[in-house]
């Protein structure tokens, strides 16, 4: 494997991809749960005995597939843009604690990274348009246009985080954009594309994913606080200082836990009230297990005095968020079985 190819893989930051698709997994799981609960699925399955019939398989599997492809495109574009923006601004230098970036290493030139950003943006937009068409067709034109605007806004947000003179990541706004696009836009967006309806209880799991995604960014910014100060990158962590940033971090994880718990209680109680579905299942609460390593992580963050020592914790929060999403999928499957 050539050094150039390794540099491109590094620039794509594969370790960030599971976090980026967590919202899609959660929204898809509860979206399909909603679809199945609103149809007499069991009766149709007994009558047709056909896995290809619309009655037995009453949803379009291409919707989550295209959503995952699109989301991965957004994340890789964001990673390329972040590498490019911080590289040309000189933020990625010898003071940086994390792994060396592609432009920082000199293996990939700024012109090459810029070209990769353009190609990734175009491919991601094509995937987004395909997703909107497969989900909504031409019958819901206004809603399709709304989602198209969201897609374009996501591409803009991915690029402008660190690129340009007015990069919002350098003004402490990265946390807001991460929360909105990783949380409500991702979870509630895919839920609507699948169900063609809004369920306001989905705000709660969307907040959980959004808050945990911000927690990952907050950890990253705590780790890089000294190099960011020198480079003039005024993240929220730089503005508030490390002690307050830790309190902010504890709050993010705690609020994510509260939002998730409320959502599962609502789901459990709704089944309790519905006598047709029998006793409510304890499996609704299965995803709460993902918070066990997160609360252990909070204790470690409290004990770490040097920002550089927070680097290993990034992976823990990202993987715990992904585990939460996978447990949501498993929970839906077990409850529906």
Name the features.
14 helices; 72% helix; 337 residues; mainly alpha
Concise overview:
This protein is an all-alpha fold and 337 residues long. It has helices at 3-12, 17-37, 41-48, 62-89, 102-105, 110-136, 141-160, 174-195, 203-223, 225-231, 236-240, 242-273, 291-303, 311-336.
Structure description:
Mean pLDDT is 86; it is low at 40-57. It is built from 14 helices and no strands. It is mostly helical. The N and C termini lie far apart (45 Å).
Looking at the chains present, what oligomeric state does this protein adopt?
Answer: single chain
Measured by DSSP, the beta-strand proportion falls in under 5%
Biggest sheet features: none
Spans where pLDDT lies below 50 across 5 or more residues: 40-57
On the 0-100 scale, what is the average pLDDT?
86
Number of strands: 0
Order of helices and strands: HHHHHHHHHHHHHH
Gross morphology: globular
Query: Helical stretch count?
Result: 14
**What's the domain count?**
1
Give the C-alpha Rg: 21 Å
Roughly how many Å apart are the termini? 45 Å
Helix/strand class: mainly alpha
- Helix % is over 70%
Write the layout of secondary structure elements.
Elements: H1 3-12, H2 17-37, H3 41-48, H4 62-89, H5 102-105, H6 110-136, H7 141-160, H8 174-195, H9 203-223, H10 225-231, H11 236-240, H12 242-273, H13 291-303, H14 311-336
Helix pairs in contact: 2-4, 2-8, 2-9, 2-14, 4-6, 4-7, 4-8, 6-7, 7-8, 8-9, 9-12, 9-14, 12-13, 13-14
């Amino acid at each position: 494997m050539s050094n150039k190819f390794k540099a491109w893989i590094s620039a794509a930051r594969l370790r960030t991809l599971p976090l980026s698709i967590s919202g899609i997994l959660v929204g898809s799981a509860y979206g399909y749960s909603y679809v199945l609960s609103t149809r007499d699925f069991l009766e149709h399955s007994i009558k047709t005995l056909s896995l290809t019939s619309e009655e037995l398989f009453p949803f379009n599997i291409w919707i989550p597939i295209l959503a995952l492809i699109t989301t991965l495109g957004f994340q890789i574009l964001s990673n390329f843009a972040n590498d490019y923006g911080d590289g040309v601004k000189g933020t990625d230098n010898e003071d940086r604690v994390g792994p060396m970036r592609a432009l920082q290493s000199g293996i990939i030139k700024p012109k090459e990274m810029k070209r990769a950003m353009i190609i990734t943006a175009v491919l991601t937009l094509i995937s987004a348009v395909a997703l909107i068409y497969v989900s909504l067709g031409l019958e819901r034109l206004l809603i399709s246009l709304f989602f198209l605007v969201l897609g374009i806004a996501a591409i803009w947000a991915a690029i402008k985080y660190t690129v340009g003179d007015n990069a919002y990541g350098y003004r402490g706004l990265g946390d807001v954009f991460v929360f909105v696009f990783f949380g409500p836009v991702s979870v509630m967006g895919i839920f609507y594309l699948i169900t063609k309806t809004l369920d306001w209880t989905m705000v709660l799991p969307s907040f959980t994913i959004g808050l945990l995604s911000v927690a990952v960014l907050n950890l990253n910014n705590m780790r890089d606080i000294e190099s960011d100060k020198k480079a003039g990158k005024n993240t929220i962590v730089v503005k508030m200082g490390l002690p307050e940033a830790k309190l902010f971090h504890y709050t993010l994880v705690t609020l994510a836990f509260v939002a998730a718990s409320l959502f599962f209680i609502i789901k459990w109680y709704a089944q309790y009230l519905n006598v047709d579905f029998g006793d409510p299942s304890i499996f609704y609460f299965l995803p709460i297990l993902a918070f066990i390593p997160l609360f252990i992580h909070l204790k470690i963050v409290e004990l770490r005095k040097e920002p550089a020592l927070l680097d290993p914790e990034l992976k823990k929060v990202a993987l715990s968020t992904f585990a939460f999403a996978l447990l949501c999928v498993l929970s839906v499957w077990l409850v529906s079985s």
